[in-house]
Amino acid sequence: MRILIMGGTRFIGVYLTKLLVAQGHEVVLFNRGNHPAPVLGVKTITGDRTSAVELQEKLSSEHFEAIFDNNGRELSDTQPLAEIFNGKVQHFVYMSSAGVYLPGMELPHVEGDAVDPKSRHKGKHETEAYLAQSGMPFTSIRPTYIYGPQNYNELEGWFFDRIVRDRPIPIPGHGLHITQLGHVQDLAAAMTRVLGSRQAIGQIYNVSGDRYVTFDNLARACALAAGKQPESLQIIHYDPKKFDFGKKKAFPFRLQHFFAAIDKAKRELDWKPQYDLISGLKDAFANDYLASGRDKAQVDFSVDEQILADRT
Predict the structure, then answer these.
(1) Distance set, CA 301 to CA 31, 128, 172, 173, 298 (Å)
(2) Cis status, amide bond into 36, omega within 30 of 0
(3) How do 178-179 and 91-95 pair as beta strands?
(4) At what angle do helices 75-85 and 122-134 cross, to 10 degrees?
(5) What CATH number does the domain containing 231 carry?
(6) Torsions phi, psi for 105 (to 5 deg)
(7) Does the chain have fewer CB atoms within 10 Å around its N or its C terminus?
(8) Domain NAD-dependent epimerase/dehydratase spans what residues (predicted)?
(9) One domain for residues 172 and 188
(10) In sequence order, which residues have a C-beta less than 8 Å from that of residue 10 and are 6 or more positions away?
(11) Is residue 312 in some structural domain?
(12) Are residues 78 and 141 part of one domain?
């Protein structure tokens, strides 16, 4: 297949591009050109996806069998692209988020659960609804928290920063909130499984790891991955309502239970995660955190100090 990836040079897009090229597909990237293509010889069309005019000018003459829209956050990001290719592609794969779900009484979230109209990811659900009514042969992927090498979001790195420096780990609440992480390689693999699947047309799939973990045990898992004894961690619990952190983020996870069932993706896409949490965190620690020298970088712990000062 000739496949267009919107983005393709950071995190998910890097893994997806490498997998698709390895599978023999012709991959074309569309992005601002700020980062090199992750595979030598992959064509990049440079442009601004937020400009409908520029999308039309640069993509309307192109032919693709499939499109992966990895970085559309709002309907206004994706609709112009979909309008260009509706009726011209076999498959349009949209990267949504499990963050669209309305927090409910029952967990894990399944694909038919209600969505939260106030979610910061509501633009993604609006895009899913548009794609469904437009007749586009689409599939939507809803990951939970994504981790792994080249992660530019503060997730596992937040814990590693404190663990390698033998600092206390400040965790809001009681530390027993349950969350879920999925390795980026597993996510990219699930995305490639969508291609050629008629059953996947018009479907939404939760994609993540197949186990859940509490905040406290995630800290301990990160310690194991970093070669430390989990028992040596000093985990500090605090009430976030007592503090004003301004615009600084004190903790990288939402303070709620947040996890989703991935049974549908496993069943219909013939896919399953290859990484368990510990092996995935070891991969992130060795091949990203240490490899990038972040263990020696200067880190701003001023928010931590604010929390710790309240305990003295």
Answers:
(1) 34, 39, 16, 19, 9
(2) no
(3) unpaired
(4) 20
(5) 3.90.25.10
(6) -75, -30
(7) C
(8) 3-207
(9) no
(10) 35, 150, 152
(11) no
(12) yes
Rounded CA gap, 3 and 92, in Å? 10
Residue the block writes with tokens 């303070």:
255
Same domain, 73 and 134: yes
Q: Do 143 and 215 have their domain in common?
A: no
pLDDT tens by residue, 149-167: 999 999 999 999 999 999 9
Q: Mention every residue, 6+ apart, whose C-beta is less than 8 A from residue 157.
A: 151, 284, 288, 289, 294
Q: Do 35 and 111 sit in the same domain of this protein?
A: yes
Q: From 226, 252, 244, select the one nearest 167 (Cα to Cα).
A: 226
Question: Helix or strand or coil: residue 24?
Answer: coil
The answer as to whether 227 is a domain residue is yes
- Residue 96 sits in the same domain as residue 203: yes
- The two structure tokens encoding residue 139: 């599939």
Q: Is 242 within 8 Å of 179 (Cβ atoms)?
A: no
Q: Give CA–CA dist 25/19, Å, rounded.
A: 9
Is the pTM higher than 0.90? The answer reads yes
pLDDT tens digits, residue range 43-77? 999 999 999 999 999 999 999 999 999 999 999 99
Are residues 209 and 181 in contact, defined by beta-carbon separation less than 8 angstroms? yes
Q: Are residues 63 and 172 in the same domain?
A: no
Amino acid identity for residue 289 in this structure:
Y
- Amino acid symbol at 153: N
267 contact partners, CB below 8 Å, separation of at least 6: none
Q: How far is CA 121 from the centre of its chain?
A: 12
126 shares a domain with 227: no
Residues 237-253 have pLDDT tens digits of 999 999 999 999 999 99
Spatial strand order of the sheet with 26-31 comes to 43-46, 26-31, 2-6, 66-69, 91-95, 138-143, 203-207
